[in-house]
């Protein structure tokens, strides 16, 4: 869903990819490619005037930035700013998550918030915690982080609560309830996002760890097989 806004004589577009939607792609005015996960948005100008290029995002967005050493590219989300000259990276900043993740696939980016700065190398990921504004840098699992771009879910020893957050966005689940102890169960596996919700949950049930009950857009998570 796209909308237009006129602010300070500069015209902006906002593209929103709603919950329950497939990944959408957008070519920005400078040729930069952006891909939006479900429940994500990007606000950008109709033309990049001045000495830099600036966009703002919510949710999870992948960028393949067109190189221009004289006009750096900036992405802002949840108070964090990413400076880029020409590279591929993912910013993951959903409002219901306590952290903002920036994963660098190729090139170089500088992640900043307030007086904190980190320069990432390919294969690294920065983690910004909302509770104390610290930026930690770690090695990223690139295959896992980019799976959604290629149309897959990729869970590698992931907590069930995190998995269900992602499934909730992709399949527009309205409410998820958990039986005690199920939230922290770990799962490992890959499955195509083209499969429906029931099929994905059935694969998780096949481990014998868990059982799901689906009523409309509500899912109950129960312990063990049924």
Structure summarized in a few sentences:
By secondary structure, the protein is mainly beta.
Can you describe this structure?
- The chain is mainly beta and 226 residues long.
- The protein contains 3 helices and 19 strands.
- The chain has helices at residues 142-146, 160-171, 197-205; strands at residues 2-7, 10-17, 24-27, 33-36, 40-45, 53-64, 73-77, 80-84, 88-93, 99-106, 109-113, 116-120, 124-129, 135-139, 152-159, 175-178, 186-192, 210-215, 218-223.
- Strands 1, 2, 3, 4, 5, 6, 7, 8, 9, 10, 11, 12, 13 and 14 form a 14-stranded mixed beta sheet that branches. The protein has a 3-stranded mixed beta sheet with strand order 16-19-18, with helices on one face. Strands 15-17 form a two-stranded antiparallel ribbon.
- A hairpin with a 2-residue loop joins strand 11 (109-113) and strand 12.
- The chain starts with a strand and ends with a strand.
Biggest sheet details: 14 strands, mixed
Q: If helices are DSSP runs of H or I spanning 4 or more residues, what is the number of helices? A: 3
Mean of residue pLDDT?
A: 92
Shape summary: elongated
Beta strand %: over 45%
- In the predicted model, the low-confidence regions spanning at least 5 consecutive residues are 2-8
Secondary-structure element order, N to C = EEEEEEEEEEEEEEHEHEEHEE
Give the structural class: mainly beta
Return Rg in Å. 19 Å
Instruction: Report how far the terminal alpha carbons are from each other.
Output: 41 Å
Number of strands: 19
DSSP helix fraction: 10-25%
